[in-house]
Design goal:
The complex is a heterodimer of chains A (about 190) and B (about 160).
Chain A lengths: L6 E7 L10 E5 L6 E4 L11 E13 L6 E13 L23 E12 L14 E5 L2 E3 L14 E11 L5 E5 L7 E5 L6
Chain B lengths: L14 E5 L43 E3 L6 E5 L2 E13 L11 E15 L38
Antiparallel strand pairs in B: 2-4, 3-4, 4-5
């Protein structure tokens, strides 16, 4: 299906009228977290996204044309969600896969703002490789790829998305060029329904 | 973002399921036989004696409003799924909605569902087969309260 297009279908269920009391409409693909819609009674409010405003400002080194150089980085907010959503550029974050989280994972969206410092080689290049997530000691890149080229003093927003097991206990965002000055943002894992 | 059509059917063996928490047997107390309508046109048809869309009279198609609070919706993968209609009918799945629906042996629940991307969500093809599904599988419904649609072969 395409954006802006409404499609329709008829689903058939073998059910007697009395069966509908307490029945749910459940949509899933067998592996991802199901969407559940009660057929009777009130529809509960969405539990996601779970958003936390952070606002922590640090200085880290990002890649330039030669040596990594300092830039001001703000972790604006963290969001836990069951659907991947879109990034600052308006594009789907979970590119190449379903936006629905696996049943035993949740999406973590990290929203950053970066302002480039004086580069040594004509620009600062923050990209997904410089926004890693450590989950119980295992470090990996975000699901989405995103790269920027910033002139000295220029700023931009970035959003990265990570798939996190629901039973993760220690989650840390590591920002900055590998081998240069980095910063670790501790991420509190909330109760994830 | 990926806007290309992708053969994801194998990975996304889509299942639509209605999980029925309470199986009440043959009590049709939630249905109102006075609201019987023709399955194809939506017109009211006579609700004969003992006419509860149970398939007792295999020659007559009877449709009964399921009396749900509609529309209601839920979001999955950036797509809003809305149930817009719910009716019980003894019409066969392959004939429901046609000009001449055929009465079958079973009373079935027909859910009309529409899908639409959420506001602001980037469109993406191929992962959401419900939009391409219309007919249920041409099999006799079982006693299991589960319905499924076959993902189209193009996905």
């Amino acid at each position: 299906m395409k954006a802006g297009k409404v499609t329709s279908a008829v689903l058939v269920v073998d059910a007697a009228a009395a069966d509908l009391d307490g029945a749910d409409f459940v949509y899933d693909d067998g592996s991802r977290l199901a969407a559940v819609l009660p057929l009777t009674g009130s529809v509960p409010d969405d539990e996601y996204p779970l958003r936390t405003e952070v606002g922590e400002v640090v200085t880290v080194d990002f890649t330039t044309g030669c040596n990594p150089s300092p830039a001001e980085l703000t972790l604006v907010a963290l969001e836990w969600d069951v659907d991947g959503g879109v990034g600052a550029d308006g594009k789907k974050l979970a590119a190449g896969r379903s936006s629905r989280t696996l049943a035993d994972e949740r999406w973590l969206r990290a929203q950053f703002a970066v302002v480039a410092g004086p580069g040594e080689c004509g620009g600062t290049y923050p990209n997904h490789e410089q926004f890693r997530l450590s989950i119980d000691g295992l470090v990996g890149p975000p699901v989405n790829s995103y790269s920027l080229t910033l002139a000295d003093g220029a700023g931009a927003d970035l959003t990265f998305i990570y798939d996190v097991p629901v039973d993760a206990s220690e989650v840390v965002l590591v920002a900055g060029a590998d081998g240069a000055t980095t910063h670790e943002f501790a991420v509190k894992v909330p109760e994830l329904p | 973002m990926n806007r290309s059509r992708r053969p994801l059917a194998a990975a996304l063996a889509l299942v639509f399921a209605v999980l029925l928490a309470a199986c009440g047997g043959g009590d049709d107390s939630g249905a109102d036989p006075d609201t019987s309508t023709d399955a194809s046109s939506g017109d009211t048809v006579p609700a004969g004696e003992g006419d509860e869309a149970s398939g007792d009279d295999a020659d007559e198609v009877v449709t009964i409003d399921a009396d749900l609070d509609l529309p209601c919706s839920v979001t999955y993968a950036g797509v809003e799924i809305t149930i817009t209609g719910a009716t019980f009918s003894n019409a066969t799945p392959l004939s429901i909605g046609s000009d001449e629906p055929v009465a079958g042996d079973d009373e079935l629940l027909y859910l009309e569902v529409s899908t639409e991307f959420e506001d602001g969500f980037a469109g993406d093809d191929g992962f959401f087969p419900i939009g391409n599904s219309r007919s249920p599988p041409p099999t006799t419904p079982t006693s299991s309260p589960v319905a499924s649609t076959s993902p189209p072969s193009s996905l």
